[in-house]
Every structure is written in C-alpha cells, then in structure tokens.
Amino acid sequence: MSAPLSLRCLLRPSAPVPRSITAAASTPSPWTATFSTTASAQKDGQKMGTPKKMSAKTKGSVSTHMNPTGKKQTMAKFKKNKGAKTGKPPLPGERKALRKRIQLSNNNALPVAGLVELEPKDLLDPTKVGTMVALPGEMQDSLRTLEAFKPTQFWPMFRQPATLIRSETVDLIAQMQEAASKKQMLRAVITGERITGKSLLLLQSMAYGLSKEWIVINIPEAQELTTACTEYAPVPDTEPVQYMQNNYCLKMIQAIKKANSSVLAKQATVYSHPELPQNIPINSSLLALLNAAKEPESAWVVFQAFWKELMHKDATRPPILFTLDGLQHIMKISDYRSPAFELIHSQDLALVRLFCDTLSGASPLPNGGAILAATTRGNAPRSPSMELALAQREAEQAGTEPPAHEPYFKGYDTRSEATLKSVKVMKVKGMSKLEARGLMEYWASSGILRATVDEKAVAAKWALSAGVVGEMERASLLTMRP
C-alpha cells in the first residue's frame, strides 16, 4: 500500500486534512488507466476545459450545453427545410397599385333592362329622384383618370357603373348651374356621417362638369398632400416660405390633360410665359401649355402658368370645377418639416394654399364655376377649428345661434377658420324610402339581390340602415347567401 493511501485511512472525518496530504492525494495514481472512454479535452493542442473556438459559419447553427462533469459540449441544431422561394418580390409601387385598383364592370352581373345613360338634364330634374342612370363610356375614362371612383365602393358587382339620383344631387347641380350662368363661384363643403355618399356626390358633380364641358380638377385624397409621402421643396422668393410638391403636381397635370383634352384643345393662351422650360407662344392651346410639363422640376411652374390662364376673364373661357376629398387633412399642421426642423402648416404647401384661397373667396373664379370640398369620417384626423366653423355655418343657414369657442381650449387654428368663414355647408343625410326602393330594384335587376323588392322589404332594409347608403349595402349585399 502506498503511503498516501495509508495516511488517508488513519484520518478521522472530524479532523482537518493537512494541505500536504490533499495535494499528494490529488496526484494521479501510478495504477491509473492509460486510456479513457470519454472524448479528449486536449484535442488540437488545446488546454483541459477550454472549448474549441467556432467559426462564424457554424456559430449560428450550434448550441452549447454543460454535461454533468462540467465540460461544455456543442450540439448541432436540426434545421427545417423551408423550401426555395419561387416568387419574386413585388416591384416598387405594385402593392399601392393593387390596393387602389378600380374595377368598373362585372360580366357575371345581369344587364339591367331600361337603364338609360346619364344626361346633364337628368341631374337637374326633381322627378328623376330615386332613379338609376348609367355613366357613359367616355365619361368613365375621364372619371377614372381623375380618380373619382373609390376602391371601397361597390363598382365591381355590377355590369356597368351607374349612380342614383338623390335630392342632394339635384340641389347641388342646380346651384352649380346657377353660379355658372351668372359667372359666379359656388363655394361649398359637403359633410355628413360616415358612408352616407359624400364621395359619390362629388363624383356626380364631376360627371355634370364633364358633360357640360367644364374644366374639371380633382384632388382625390388630400392626405397624400399632407402626410409627408411626396417630395417637396421651398418655392423661391415667397414670404412666408411656401413649399411646392413637384411630383404630385406632375401627376395632377397629366390627369387634367387626359380628362379635359377636348376642352383644353379649344382654349388659347393669352399670356407669354418666359419662365417655362420651352417656348409657348401666345394663341397656343392650353393643352400645348400643359404638355410643357415633362419633368417634375418644371411641374409647379407649368401649373402656375396654367392657373394664370384660367384666371383670365373671357367670355369664351369655360367654368371651372375644383374638387377635393378629405378636407380635414388640410385643416391642420402637416407632417412636413422646414429646414429648421419645424412642422409646416398644411396651408403653407403651395397647392393646398391655392385651393384654400379659392375656397375662402380670396381668389375668385372670374369665369364662374364651383369649388367643392368633402369631409371624410374614415381615417381622418380631428380638426376642432373645422368642426366649429362648419357648425357655425350650419347654424347661420338655419337661422339659429351659432356655437362659440370653448374658452379654455387652445387648439383652434385661425387659418382654418378663415378659410371656412363664408362657405356653404351641404349635409348629406340618409336616403328616403323612394331612393332606397330605386336602389334595391337596381340591385335585384342586376341579379345580386335575390329577394322580392316590395314595400315590406324596402321598409325593413331602410329601417335597419337608417337610410345610410353604405349601411344598406352592408345589410343587403354583404349578407348574400347562395
């Protein structure tokens, strides 16, 4: 027996073990086996207990674990085969184009017998209230170019696009005709609850303007001007500084040119415009003037020259219809910032400023026409100044006491209140039973409403939706069952 083993047997458990004895006991025994069944820790010249370094390639695919002996072991992870990607990613702007895609016909829908095409006199006839009229093919192309149709509307369910003549339609078109005949300007704001048909009323006004050969300009979504989603730059020599949006102006010029080409080709220029990128002589057509905008850098300059020509008072100049949807977005501070990183007011954007000056009456239309703005209740910011101003105008039109400012609220915007100080307010309400019956009969004739349209069915749907056209569509069309 060796000396270390015999000394260990003589020691009692309660007595401390001398340091020299424990050191001697830790030395390997001469009878220790010369091989081991465990993996050697000293592989590749590494020291005992030091793990081998992993390369960057294998570092993400292995995990480290501790075995019972205190040594580190690495275990490879089992990767699942996700499969090869066969499709390609969408191109820039492809998702937005799909989201805003408009389908105006459905070959599976039945053609409606007796459906007549829209004529300007139909929108002025009170006896036509509650009837459906189809939009002509050429007008469809112009309205699509102006983005008058909305993706949320029920156009893809019918054979061809048609619109319902309502009492609000007759009232609005009559005011537009009266203003144009007197070379005056109608300034109105269309408001109402959600999905009551405000955007459709704007579409009907544009259809009337196109059929009467007016020059129609439309801003389909005001939020595209104020949510910092398009490029902008300061306009030189402006105080306070205004900002132009060249890319949006170029897109709008192309829409104006395509939708009003026949009218613009008949109108001649009366001013010389040396600031344009190309020479446009006097007596050139307004269509040739708009053709000068070939690049975004010159879009705002060309639009200013075009607007100057429209402001020339001449008996041969047609009236102008300028419309905007989503009024709340231009009645607040925008998301753009100045070079000093200060937020820019929406009315400091040059195109918004031009619309607001026209809506307020500061820049009248000398040849008559109408400027219309519609509010929106979906995806709209809150504008206390606009809501108060419209409530005041409604009270003044009704002959009642207008509401006053809240004394302890400091969020009012004086510029927005000045813009809406003298406008007319048209509130779109629910449909009458006569209008609801005409709409349901059109749905049944198209083959998408599989129910008998009688007085009882009309009263049930009308009561369920409170006359709101969007709610009636939900109650009647979205609950269809085969």
- The global form is globular
Domain module tally: 2
Query: How far apart lie the N and C ends?
Result: 98 Å
Chain-averaged pLDDT:
86
For the biggest β-sheet, the strand order reads 6-9-12-5-13
Low-pLDDT parts are: 20-33, 35-49, 56-62
Strand content: 5-15%
E-strand count:
13
- In DSSP terms, counting alpha (H) and pi (I) runs of 4 or more, how many helices? 18
Helix percent band: 25-40%
Features:
single chain, 482 residues, alpha/beta, 2 domains, five-stranded parallel β-sheet, 13 strands, globular, structural constituent of ribosome
Layout of helices and strands, plus pairs?
Layout: H1 3-10, H2 19-25, H3 56-59, E1 62-66, E2 72-76, H4 94-99, E3 132-134, H5 137-145, E4 162-164, H6 167-181, E5 185-192, H7 198-211, E6 215-219, H8 223-226, E7 233-234, E8 243-244, H9 246-259, H10 261-264, H11 286-290, H12 299-310, E9 320-325, E10 333-337, E11 343-345, H13 350-360, E12 369-374, H14 384-398, H15 414-419, E13 424-428, H16 433-446, H17 455-465, H18 469-476
Parallel strand pairs: 5-12, 5-13, 6-9, 9-12
Antiparallel strand pairs: 1-2, 3-4, 7-8, 10-11
Helix pairs in contact: 5-9, 6-7, 16-17, 17-18
Main location: mitochondrion
Biased composition (Low complexity): 22-41
Region (Disordered): 13-93
Protein model, in words:
The chain is of the alpha/beta class and 482 residues long. The chain has helices at 3-10, 19-25, 56-59, 94-99, 137-145, 167-181, 198-211, 223-226, 246-259, 261-264, 286-290, 299-310, 350-360, 384-398, 414-419, 433-446, 455-465, 469-476; strands spanning 62-66, 72-76, 132-134, 162-164, 185-192, 215-219, 233-234, 243-244, 320-325, 333-337, 343-345, 369-374, 424-428. β10 (333-337) and β11 form a beta hairpin. The N and C termini lie far apart (98 Å). This is Small ribosomal subunit protein mS29. Residues 58-72 have a biased composition (Polar residues).
